[in-house]
Design brief:
- It contains 6 helices and 6 strands, in the order βααβαβαβααββ.
- With 197 residues, it is of the alpha/beta class.
- It has a single domain, classed as Phosphoglycerate mutase-like (Rossmann fold), CATH 3.40.50.1240.
- The protein has a 6-stranded mixed β-sheet, with helices on both faces.
- The radius of gyration is 16 Å and the shape is globular.
Amino acid sequence: MKELYLMRHGQTLFNKLHRIQGSSDSPLTSQGIADAKEVGRYFDQINLTFDHAYSSTQERASDTLENITNQPYERLKGIKEWDFGVFEGQSEQLNPDPQIDPIRHSYGDFFLQFGGESDIQVQQRMNQTLTEIMEKPDHNRVLVVSHGGACFAFLKKWLSYEEIQKQVTNFHNCCILKFTYSDKEFKFIKEINVKSL
């Protein structure tokens, strides 16, 4: 059974300032760097190694990965953050109600009218990219650093909203979601929060 460790990047300046940062980018804070290094120490302590590592093409994800491990990695556009269109870089106070689409339990199609993506578009590209990664030979245990919105959209592909509420309690920066993979299907195993261990 293959394993995927899907991780949210470390804290950034925009996280700290409560700004929307989908396709836009901002640097890791000193806290974000420290938390990423702590994840690396945790992996070393439990002797967890990865056949391959990937990050999104965004700097905050690749910088997080480089603070976790020295192993070579590949950057992929398919696992970048949700594109929020003209809302990029603006205050998070301008976001709509997160439950604006009560059926999909998300922003739904809201950002399409502003040049961004829908939750379904994000989910489809995340699932396609992560499936392609896990289908590669010698990819038995893989570390992927992505983003909060993108990871949540992917999680909703494989868990109901009610199951997510029960099983994912603190999806903060540097949180890790562990999945197993077989026959083109992902199974959520657990949430790992190194800071709370």
